[in-house]
């Protein structure tokens, strides 16, 4: 029986682990398929306070992990396939069938990039299809790139990719963009960005040497065409990783965990959520780390018996 278990090892989960470990609560930290979270797929992080020259994402995450280990956090790699939160203590089932019992739980499973779900997409990830401009942009020096999406992420990725590409084509399924005006303006003013609006992607075309094109349907005329490209960057948002919870925790309509405002408390007493799994607004490493600290402090209070609450009625 553990006093506390943290699921997820991005900035929020590792910060929670550091605080719990320093409070002598010997947390078990379960890391899933993307150890270190989204920061391990980025290159330089320039906006995390304390690193005036910037720091590489993977190095930052390794540092956080070592810091948690130094104070006694225990790590285990596995998927959590099931969580029984219907009674205290809670039971988690790992993919090999191992059951873990814990008095409290911090969920920091983050959010994963959404895919289009079209033929040729999944099988060409790493061969020209990417969901991370900062990770893969470098490989497209002097090449043609397509960015799919009409939100702020797509604008940001397109703008960033013009550092490397000879041209960046923004493909969006509607004539209007969802992105904020300032982000739209930035892309529109960039001479390397060209536009294919009102086009729905229907297939990624690839040969032996990777991606060569994106087949799209013109939503106005119904006509199909192949847009030539060397790479397709999919920037259509993220999905919070909550499926293992099987509906036991209250989420919003997009699947993000709902927490009691100003805290990390979920609708289940003793279960806390932090990081991108409960935040689709800020989504920064530093805000995730901050909420990880809050989750550990909330959890500590709960374990000391000082937190008496039941706000589930209000959900
Ligand atoms: P988003 O705002 O949800 O936009 C997703 C875009 O992808 C939409 O334009 C959507 O089209 C399109 N899309 C979704 N599913 C699709 C599909 N199956 N096929 C084709 N297109 C599809 O997501 P986001 O851009 O990642 O932004 C998420 C949040 O983070 C927003 O609040 C955003 O403001 C914020 N953010 C801010 C910044 C910044 O300020 N620097 C940067 C990135 C993100 P429709 O428009 O037709 O639905």
Short summary of the structure?
The chain is α/β, with parallel strands linked by helices and 315 residues long. It is built from six helices and 19 strands.
Order of helices and strands: EHEEEHEEEEEEHEHEHEEEEEEEH
Strand tally: 19
Spans where pLDDT lies below 50 across 5 or more residues: none
CATH topology of the largest domain: FAD/NAD(P)-binding domain
What name goes with the CATH superfamily of the largest domain? FAD/NAD(P)-binding domain
**Ligand catalogue:** NADP nicotinamide-adenine-dinucleotide phosphate
User: What's the end-to-end separation, in Å?
Assistant: 30 Å
**CATH architect. name of the largest domain:** 3-Layer(bba) Sandwich
Shape: elongated
Integer count of domains: 2
Proportion in helices: 10-25%
Identify the CATH class of the largest domain.
Alpha Beta
Computed structural class: alpha/beta
Mean pLDDT across all residues, rounded? 93
Major β-sheet profile:
7 strands, mixed
Q: Count helical runs.
A: 6
Radius of gyration, whole Å: 21 Å
Strand-residue proportion? 25-35%
Keywords:
21% helix, 2 domains, FAD/NAD(P)-binding domain, 315 residues, single chain, binds NADP nicotinamide-adenine-dinucleotide phosphate, seven-stranded mixed beta sheet, alpha/beta, five-stranded parallel beta sheet
Give an overview of the whole structure.
The protein is of the alpha/beta class and 315 residues long. The protein folds into 2 domains: 5-113 and 238-313, 3-Layer(bba) Sandwich (FAD/NAD(P)-binding domain), CATH 3.50.50; 122-234, FAD/NAD(P)-binding domain (3-Layer(bba) Sandwich). The chain has 6 helices and 19 strands. It has helices at residues 11-22, 57-70, 133-136, 152-161, 181-188, 285-303; strands at 2-7, 28-31, 44-45, 55-56, 74-77, 80-84, 90-94, 99-107, 111-113, 129-130, 144-148, 167-171, 193-196, 199-207, 210-218, 224-228, 231-234, 238-240, 271-273. Strands 1, 2, 5, 6, 7, 8 and 19 form a 7-stranded mixed β-sheet that branches. Strand 12, helix 5 (181-188) and strand 13 form a beta-alpha-beta unit. The longest helix is centred in the C-terminal third of the chain and has 19 residues, at 285-303. The radius of gyration is 21 Å and the shape is elongated. The model has no long low-confidence stretch (mean pLDDT 93). The structure holds NADP nicotinamide-adenine-dinucleotide phosphate. NADP nicotinamide-adenine-dinucleotide phosphate is lined by residues 116, 149-154, 156, 173-174, 178, 236-237, 280, 283. Residues 116, 149-154, 156, 173-174, 178, 236-237, 280, 283 line the site of NADP nicotinamide-adenine-dinucleotide phosphate.
């Amino acid at each position: 029986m553990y006093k506390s278990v943290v699921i997820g090892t991005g900035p929020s989960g590792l910060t929670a682990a550091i605080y719990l470990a320093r409070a002598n609560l010997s947390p078990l930290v379960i890391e899933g398929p993307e150890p270190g979270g989204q920061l391990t797929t980025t290159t330089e992080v320039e906006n995390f306070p304390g690193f005036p020259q910037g720091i590489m994402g993977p190095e930052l995450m390794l540092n956080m992990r070592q810091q948690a280990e130094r104070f006694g956090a225990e790590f285990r790699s596995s998927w959590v396939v099931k969580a029984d939160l219907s009674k205290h203590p809670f039971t988690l089932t790992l993919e090999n069938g191992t059951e873990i019992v814990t008095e409290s739980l911090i969920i920091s499973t983050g959010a994963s990039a959404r895919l289009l779900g079209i033929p040729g997409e999944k099988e060409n990830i790493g061969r020209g299809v990417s969901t991370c401009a900062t990770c893969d942009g470098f490989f497209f020096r002097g090449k043609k790139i397509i960015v799919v999406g009409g939100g702020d992420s797509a604008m940001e990725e397109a703008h960033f990719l013009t550092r490397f590409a000879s041209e960046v084509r923004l493909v969006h399924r509607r004539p209007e963009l969802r992105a904020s005006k300032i982000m739209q303006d930035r892309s529109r003013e960039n001479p390397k960005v060209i536009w294919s609006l009102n086009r729905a992607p229907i297939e990624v075309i690839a040969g032996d040497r990777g991606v060569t094109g994106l087949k799209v349907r013109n939503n106005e005329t119904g006509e199909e065409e192949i847009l030539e490209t060397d790479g397709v960057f999919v920037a259509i948002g993220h999905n919070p990783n909550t499926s293992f919870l099987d509906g036991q925790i209250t989420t919003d309509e997009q699947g993000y965990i709902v927490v009691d405002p100003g805290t990390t408390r979920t609708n289940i007493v003793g279960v806390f959520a932090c990081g991108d799994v409960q935040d689709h607004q800020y989504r920064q490493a530093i805000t995730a780390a901050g909420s990880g600290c809050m989750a550990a402090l909330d959890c500590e209070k709960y374990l000391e018996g000082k937190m008496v609450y039941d706000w589930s009625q209000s959900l």
